[in-house]
Amino acid sequence: MVQFSHVIRDALGIHARPAGLLVKAAGKYKNATITLDKGGDDKADMKKLFRVMRLGVKQGDTVTVTVEGEDEDAALAELRAIMEETL
């Protein structure tokens, strides 16, 4: 299991376009469990767009991405790059 945390800088938070990019990237790793954690009980499967959007992540929120399974390092690196570039 690997994970990283990221503070959302985008004024709109995690909105449709970056959420779509994250879900598309996560979907490539079929044998990995990938979750987005907003804190507390607020977690979402990053392979499901509506679950990610339902978290309602806003600017200034800290989220944690956790990847467990095959290719976890590659998946984490790709998702981190997307978040750092777009969010």
Describe the structure.
With 87 residues, this protein is an alpha+beta fold. Helices cover 38% and strands 30% of the residues. It is built from three helices and four strands. The chain has helices at 16-27, 49-54, 72-86, and strands at 2-7, 32-39, 42-45, 62-69. Strands 1-4-2-3 form a four-stranded antiparallel beta sheet. The model has no long low-confidence stretch (mean pLDDT 96).
TL;DR of this structure?
Helices cover 38% and strands 30% of the residues.
* Separate helix tally: 3
Distance between the terminal alpha carbons, to the nearest Å?
23 Å
**What does the overall shape look like?**
globular
State the total count of DSSP E strands. 4
Q: Roughly what is the average pLDDT, rounded to an integer?
A: 96
| Estimated radius of gyration | 11 Å
Poorly predicted regions are none
Order of helical and strand elements: EHEEHEH
> Major β-sheet, in short?
4 strands, antiparallel
Helix content: 25-40%
Percent strand equals 25-35%
Give the helix/strand class.
Answer: alpha+beta
Strand order of the largest sheet: 1-4-2-3
Indicate the topology.
Blueprint: E1 2-7, H1 16-27, E2 32-39, E3 42-45, H2 49-54, E4 62-69, H3 72-86
Antiparallel strand pairs: 1-4, 2-3, 2-4
Helix pairs in contact: 1-3
